[in-house]
Every structure is written in structure tokens, then in C-alpha cells.
Design goal:
The protein is of the alpha+beta class. The protein is 39% helix and 18% strand. The chain has 5 helices and 6 strands. The strands form 3 sheets. It has a two-stranded antiparallel ribbon with strand order 1-4. The chain has a two-stranded antiparallel sheet with strand order 2-3. It has a two-stranded parallel ribbon with strand order 5-6. A hairpin with a 2-residue loop joins strand 2 and strand 3. The N and C termini lie far apart (47 Å).
């Protein structure tokens, strides 16, 4: 059995592999889903995971002239347009972007769906850092 998590407002094709605008939607088998949920359950860390979303809604975003010069790498998935900030906006807050990459696969759970792609993205970013 396979579990499919499409975006709730997108129409899903009824083919063997669900696709949206040419991109595969998130598919996961029961074993992977159970392992993922179990990590949060047994370690009692779901609140820490949800804190990211809470803080994102309640954070005071940097004001005029407030920037972060720490080197940044950005990787975006094509199937998550609602999580894609405009590059011009990001560059105003974080002017030291060393890597801006659009991944060809994956969705909201990209690290679980495409671990090799995420690992390669992280490796390529750290190759640009001067130690």
C-alpha cells in the first residue's frame, strides 16, 4: 500500500504515479511513514518540530536595514510554490547567498523523499564556504 499526500487544492491525476505539472507528488510507503511518525512519538519531539511553524507565524521579520551576512544556501522544490519566497526579497535580508538551487524532485518532505538530492545540495553548498 502506498500513501499519497497531494496538496489539498490541486487536482490529482489517477495514473499509477500521481503527477502535478510534470512533477511527482509525495509518495511514501507505510514503513517509511511509520518510522517517521515513530521518531517524533518515541522521542517526544513533535513540539520542537511544530515550533518552526509557530515561530514562522509569530516572528518579527527584520526591518529596514537589518540584514544577516552569514553565508546562505537555498534549495527550493518545484512542487511547493507556496513555500517559495521571491529571490529579491530573500536577498534583501540575506545578501550573502552562495547557492540558490531549484531541486527537480521532492516536495514538502524533500529530505525523506529525495535524501540523495538533499545531501548533494548540502555538499555543494559547503564546497563554496571558505574556512
Amino acid at each position: 500500500m502506498r500513501i499519497v499526500f497531494p496538496h489539498p487544492f490541486r487536482r490529482q491525476k489517477t495514473d499509477e504515479e500521481p503527477v502535478y505539472n510534470g512533477h511527482h507528488l509525495f509518495t511514501q510507503n507505510n514503513h517509511d511513514l511509520l518510522a517517521n511518525v515513530s521518531i517524533y512519538w518515541f522521542t517526544q519531539t513533535i513540539n520542537a518540530a511544530n515550533r518552526y511553524y509557530y515561530e514562522g507565524r509569530h516572528i518579527k521579520w527584520p526591518g529596514e536595514g537589518e540584514i544577516c551576512n552569514v553565508p546562505h544556501g537555498v534549495s527550493l522544490t518545484k512542487t511547493q510554490p507556496h513555500e517559495r519566497p521571491p529571490r529579491e526579497y530573500v536577498e534583501r535580508l540575506f545578501p550573502n547567498i552562495l547557492q540558490w538551487q531549484e531541486l527537480n524532485a521532492g516536495g514538502h518532505f524533500v529530505a525523506l523523499e529525495q535524501p540523495g538530492l538533499v545531501a548533494e545540495s548540502i555538499r555543494s553548498f559547503f564546497k563554496t564556504i571558505q574556512y
